[in-house]
Design a protein that fits this description.
Elements (H helix, E strand, L loop, with lengths): L4 H10 L3 H35 L1 H8 L5 H19 L1 H14 L7 H33 L3 H24 L6 E3 L4 H12 L7 E4 L10 E4 L6 E5 H5 L3 H17 L1 H31 L11 H37 L3 H11 L9 H7 L5 H20 L2
Parallel strand pairs: 2-4
Antiparallel strand pairs: 1-2, 3-4
Helix pairs in contact: 1-15, 2-4, 2-12, 3-4, 4-6, 6-7, 7-11, 8-10, 10-12, 10-13, 11-12, 12-15, 13-15
Length: about 400
Amino acid sequence: MAFNPAAETARYIDALGPEALQKAADYTSASHWMLLWGLLASAVVTWIIVRTGILDKVSAKLDRRGWGLRTWLVGVTYFFASAIIGLPWGIYQEWGFEKSYGRTSQPLPDFLMQDAIGTVISSLLGALFFLGIYALIRKAGKRWWLWSGGLAALAGGATLLLSPVLIEPMFNEYKPLQEGPVKDALVDMAAEAGIPADRIFVYDGSRQSNNFTANVSGLFSSKRIAISDVALKGASLDEVKAVTGHEIGHYVSGHIWRMVGVLVLLAMVLFFLADRLFPRFARLFGSNASVGDPQGLPVLIFTVGFLGLFAQPAMNALIRQGEREADNYSLRHVNLPDALASALVKTAEYRYPRPSALQEALFYTHPSVEWRVRNAMEWKAKQLAKANRP
C-alpha cells in the first residue's frame, strides 16, 4: 500500500484525542483574545499615569538636574509605575491564565519574584532606550524617526549579545548537556554544522512553563542553542535530534540577523506613524505633552504598541517562513520526519494544530502543526519514493 502523507498527518494529529484538541483550541482562542484585553489594560494604565500627573511631578522635582538624567529618571518612573498599576493584569495574563490551562506549575511567589527582577531590568534598560529616542527628537527634529531604526538595531543587537550572558541566567539555570547518548548525538550534529559543542545547553524551562520548547539566542560569542528540560524529559532521542536539527537550522541560516534587519525597518515605520498620530492619542488621554516631551512617554509607548498590533501579522508571516526553513533544514540534515512530526504534535497542546487560514495569518508565529507534520510526511514520501526507484 502506497504511503499516504495526508492520512499519516491525520493520524498524528488525531492521536491527541478530541478532548486534548478541544482544550488546545480553547487555549489558543483565549490567548488571541488576551491581545485585545491586554491593549485595554494598557490603555487604562496609560490613562491613570497621565491623569495623576506622576511624570510631571517627577520632572518638576528633577528640574535642576541635567536633561539626560532627568529624562532617564522620568522613564524609569514610568516603567515602574506601569508595572505596579498593571500588576493584577500581569499576574492573571502571565500566570493565572497559564495555570488555568496547565501550562505552568510555577508557584505564585516564584513568579512574583521573577516578575520583580524583570521589572527592574526592563525599567532601567527601557528608560535608557527612550532616552536615546528623545535625544534623537532633540537633535534630528522632524526626521528623528529615520534614525530610530539605527537605535533599535543597536539596542536589539546589544540585547541579543548580552542577554544569554547577563539576563537569561537570572531566570534560569543553563548547563552543558550531561554525558550520554543525547550529548553524543547532538555534539556530532553541531560539529557537522560548524557549531562548537559548548554552544548547546539544557535549561530548567519547567520552572516557568510546561511547554515543549527549544530556542536559539545570542550573537557572536554568546550565540547558543538551548533545550528546555521539558523537551528532554518528554522526548525520545530521535525527537531531540529532530528538534535540535530545527534549532541548528535557525542558527546556521542567520535568522537572528534577519530579525534584526526587520526590527530596524519596523522601528522606523512605527515611530514615523507614532510621530504623526501622537497629538490625537495625547488628546484622547488628556495629555498636553508633545511627542518630544518625556512626560508624554506613556502616550508614545501606547501609540507604538497600538500600531504594533497591526504590524503583527506581517511579522508573524516572516517568523513562520523562518520556522519552515528550520523544519526543512532538520529534514534535510537529520532526516527523521516521524520524529520531527511526533515532537511537533507535543507543541499542539498549547498551539491548536488546525487553525483557519485567517487565524494562522493573524496570530500564529509558527506554521500550524498540521501543516508542519504534513510537510514532514511529504518529505518522507519523497525519500521512500527515491529508495524504491529502480
